[in-house]
Amino acid sequence: MYNQLLDTFKLVAEEGSFTKAAHKLYLTHTAVRKQINQLENLLETKLFIRDTTGVSLTTAGQILYTETLKLMNYSAEIVSRVQAASDIGTKEIRVGSSNLYPCHIFMDLWDQIRNQMPNWLLKVVTVNKDRYRLSQLGRDYDFIVGPYDSFPLESKYAFQQIGTYRFTLAVPRTNHLANNESLSLSDLAGMPLMVMKKGTSLINDQIRQTIIDKYPKIDIIDVPSHYDIQTFNQCASTGSILLSLECWDRVHPEIKNIKLTDHFELPYGLTYLKADQLANDYVTQLKSVLSNDH
């Protein structure tokens, strides 16, 4: 639960003074000081450095101040969503979106069916860190649109497929192969190829095994299981080719996304928490509308 002592803490931190904060809170200096002491005792750490000129935040206090701002914003978001849901039965669903995991492909579908789901309102929310996008589900947004593979997701997450993406090759423009419009795995003999590390994606593991069995001269380089912009920066800076997807066509200016003639596909769609009832309700109605349209 939100602790109202944080309101006093935030104001003292911003005013740099117990007295100034007390004036704005219509409290006595002593009452404000007692509230801060109570919060410090609760957290078992000092939050302020006290001197004759006022107060300043300790390292722990700086962390708490940053997290308090986030908590206050999230609390306001909760109130907004509850109020929105109470208006004529409207329910708000939040879609995470970023440069690597954009929601526009789902929005194209939504434009076609939105009139059949008038009780739903979609809100687009920025995904701050692509690598940790799944950990933000249910907190910052209700679902995210993007590629999906079943290895790590089966127990905690649910997935509603919308379509499939073709695998491609992200080739640095400094590489002579960037002049091609299409490439096959056989063209990569003797070259480094960045591939998602083993054990995180069934389909990526199948491609890896195909390379090992049929194209042993390709030098496989393991990369983290969740691509983010640093993955593409590494591709561009090292000159290594990256196993990519067609949806990442213009992610990096120094990389050309080239069609892979070896046909591999990865499903894409909505990923959400199984425990998120709002997301489940939305997907249930979405599936019903889509089935009626076909």
TrEMBL record:
It comes from the Bacteria. SUPFAM superfamilies: Periplasmic binding protein-like II (SSF53850), Winged helix' DNA-binding domain (SSF46785). GO terms for molecular function: DNA binding; DNA-binding transcription factor activity. Signal peptide: none annotated. Keywords: DNA-binding, Transcription, Transcription regulation. Belongs to the LysR transcriptional regulatory family. Gene3D superfamilies: Periplasmic binding protein-like II, Winged helix-like DNA-binding domain superfamily/Winged helix DNA-binding domain. Residues 1-58 form the HTH lysR-type domain. GO terms for cellular component: cytosol. The lineage of its organism: Bacteria, Bacillati, Bacillota, Bacilli, Lactobacillales. PANTHER family: HTH-TYPE TRANSCRIPTIONAL REGULATOR YBHD, NITROGEN ASSIMILATION TRANSCRIPTIONAL ACTIVATOR-RELATED. Pfam families: HTH_1, LysR_substrate. This is Transcription regulator.
